[in-house]
């Protein structure tokens, strides 16, 4: 398989996508948003904050041991070195969420409960019964603008050599279809991955039941009616 960096927006399904790619390739990959104690297990000579070091040198070492990694490019530290990341000589996947309102809302909900992955066990209440606090609409608008500005910057820097895919191409809260599956398969082909366990990847990470938030969740936000008025803000 080809070496690659998954450059993703936060709340774009990147955790599930990298897990799916690991499943079909049978290879472990590096998560630069891992907690420090987890990142140490990758046995690299640097910590996850490579934006404070020589980015190219860190990536060179990482790619000498692994074929892929995930970086949230809209995190402040990594966005400060986005040009270096975009220029690095491996394949780059640009993963984003077309619906900026949902991206920001998903992030705000995750911040409230400090939980960023698919709800399982006792955390399943975040999808169903948990009552979220209201979210300041002015802060929400500011974050939408910031997300759009960062997205525009990245999209203006890339060309046809990049693999661009959006959350909505891979996931659905309604029905997971053959189109969604084919989009994932197409991605694996672009990375020259010999698929090992496609059904496992789909069932565990891509199918509809894996979506982090549902429309029912939104009704548990104290001021959802106010926030829904911002859907067409941008």
What do you see in this structure?
- The chain has 234 residues and is an alpha/beta fold.
- It has a single domain, classed as Rossmann fold, CATH 3.40.50.
- Helix content is 47%, strand content 9%.
- It is built from 13 helices and five strands.
- It has helices at 14-25, 36-39, 55-63, 76-79, 82-87, 100-113, 125-128, 137-157, 167-170, 178-190, 198-206, 215-218, 224-228, and strands at residues 4-8, 30-31, 68-72, 91-96, 163-166.
- Strands 2-3-1-4-5 form a five-stranded parallel beta sheet.
- The radius of gyration is 18 Å and the shape is globular.
- It starts with a strand and ends in a 6-residue tail after the last helix.
- The relative contact order is 0.19.
- The model has no long low-confidence stretch (mean pLDDT 92).
Question: Which key phrases capture this entry?
Answer:
234 residues; alpha/beta; Rossmann fold; five-stranded parallel beta sheet; 13 helices; 5 strands
As a percent range, the share of strand residues is: 5-15%
Given this structure, which CATH class is correct? Alpha Beta
Q: What is the overall pLDDT average?
A: 92
Helix-strand pattern: EHEHHEHHEHHHEHHHHH
Largest sheet: 5 strands, parallel
Number of helices: 13
- Would you tell me the structural class of the helices and strands? alpha/beta
CATH topology: Rossmann fold
- For the CA atoms, what is the radius of gyration? 18 Å
